[in-house]
Amino acid sequence: MEPLRVNRAKILVIDDDRDILESLQNSLELPKVKLDIRTAPGGMLGLQEAKRFRPDVVILDLQMPGVNGFEVLDEIRSDSELSHTKVIMLTAKDDSRNLWEGIDRRLDDFISKPFDLEELEARIYVQLLEAQK
Amino acid sequence: MIISLFQGLTGRLKKRLQRYGVTYKRRSAVWSYIIAVMVVAAVLWLRLEFTFRLPLGVMLFGAFVAATLGGFGAGLLALLLLAFVQFYYFSEPVLSLSLAKLVGPDLGTQINFLVIGFIMVALSSALRYMRRTAARMVSAANRLSAVVESSQDAIIGKDLNGIVTDWNKGAEKLYGYSRREVVGKHISFLVPAERRHELEDITERLGRGENVNLHETVRVDKTGRYLPVQVAISPVYDAKGNIIGAATIARDISERRKREEEQDFLRQANQLLVSSLDYETILQHISQLLVPVLADWCAIDLVDGQEISRVNFVHRNPQLAELSRQMLKRYPWPEDYPHGVPLVLRTGQPELIPEVTDSMLDKEVPDPVQRQTLRTLGLCSQLVVPLKSRGTVVGSISLAYGESGRHYNHNTLMLVESFAASAAAAIENSRHYREVVQSEQQKDEFIAVASHELKTPLTSMKTYAQRILRDAKRRQADEAEVRALELITRQTDRLSSLVNNILDVTKLNNGALVLHRETVSLRELIATVIERINVLVPDRVTFEARADAEVDADPSRIEQAVVNLINNAIAYSDPESPVKVTLSTRGSYAVIAVADQGSGISPKHRQYIFERFSTASGATKGLGLGLYITKQIVDQHGGRIRVQSQVGRGSTFYIELPTLASVKKLSKLLKKEY
Fold first, then answer.
1. pTM of the entire structure?
2. What is the mean pLDDT of residues B565-592?
């Protein structure tokens, strides 16, 4: 694995399910990188948190009541201070059709639920590498 | 001899006359002879009782009477008998048969008597014959003209120049001209200008002695109206066989045409009604068929439980349709209303009101707003027929004529009733179809939502299980704990793959499975899959690639199909027995074979294994969706899936996919063709 030049990274998880938020908050870790993880239980709150927190990587659930993942993504991309934030989308497997829509909106990566913890961690790592380019 | 000559002559005459409808009854000859004998007896009695100045004159008169009454044979017999009477009773010596009596002064008298008598008999019987023949000819002619006159068809006679010579009552009725108006005129007044060419054609063909049949043509009546008619024209010959004119029989076929049009209408209606299963489309079709052909406006009301709802209303004038909808909403018909929709729905019998008058509206529609609405819509004739499905009344179709001023009659009622039968069936079918589709959609939506909801708890469960497992490994916890956590992780995966299967089936059902095709190397794909599986079951699965093959496919779906087959092979065979995957090509197909040495599949189960909810062994392990999904994926890629199996020896599943090369070749070929 190519080494990261940073040793801290800010991760924001946006999902309407609090158990998923909690489990990720308590489980995500990367070797030699300290993760600062914050969570937001919904699209609207997630956006507000993103503006305050300025995360390196956003892990964003697609299907949420109210403001959904794509709408959050659009907002992030249209915000000049957030537009370069890396976004990994969490999808259900049957969302594959929607993914093309996501790619059009400059989605960086996606992973379908339920995922392997280590796979998600690897994808976060890849995004952090991308970000330091 | 004389008689037979006479009969020969009359016989020929009879035959000729019979052609013109003159008939003869044969009277028995015995009667004429009895007449002759009686006349002779009478003459004998007269001669014996009275004295006559011209006794032979009396005798001749007797012969004349016998001939008149009994014909030639009777006259001749009477004459001979009278000659004998004269000879026997009145020639001296009387009452003697001596032939000597002939010689003497009486001989000349006898000969004169016979000659004159014969001439008289011949003349009088000829006269009688002519009189009777004439009477018969007249009656035959009367009969024929009665037939012609009373015929419903128009019968027209014309001469060679096309001048009308005969014109029967049927012709008067059909065309409206009286006989006096048309006899002597040229027939062309009946033919529309654009069809004058027909006349020339007819004249030419008649000239050749042909019969002309025009099954459907058009003529003009006195009022200028066009009539659909069927016409048959035959040449008329004189006794020598020369064509002297033509006889035309014309029949009004507007009724038949109307019936044909009705049949056409019903046929088209049926075709249109079976062309769709969509409820709204069917309702639209029904009103489109009826308005404006059979109605100025029409309404469809359906019984839905206790409710009657007006599901469709169409008016020639669309603005008025909206008006009616609003009015009906505000002023619904009372259920016990004695007319229209409520009556028909109650009784199941149609209601036909050929003529709706203003006073009827005043009397039957007490609500002034409703009355005004009906007047605005226009109502001069009304027809309401029930819609029946399997004997029960499910609704009604109401038809009305307003602005067009037409009226319904019994014929329209019958037509609309037949139409209503097909319409009711179509509506019921579409209703059922809609229910089925709706419940199917609801089911699919439910499954989709349920699957999604199931995945959310799985996600946090799996994340935590993996995290705890990682921790346990790090602090080198005991093996039992690690195994337990591994089991939790594995079973979470299993649950999520079951959920994915359910989702896939739902998508296959409603055709939402979309393939994202790209060029895929099957060797690479299978190698990767097996590498991953062998992490879990070390060295169970071997792979032999006899050839590489590129296919145009959705790699994630093909992977799913191959994984399904390998997982099945692992699940249904002993833990140590090998599973062998082979990739080869055969013709234009790439063949992936997955062989196990498991228990095999009995022929009974083999035919069901690719169906939903069936498992390879017949035992319940999983939902029985894996092979179904695999087959669907292979089918969607234009491939085939099949299985060979021997009970106790194992099974081999084959996936055959068209290779990219063959697909390209095919498309090139197709391009060349077109």
1. 0.48
2. 90
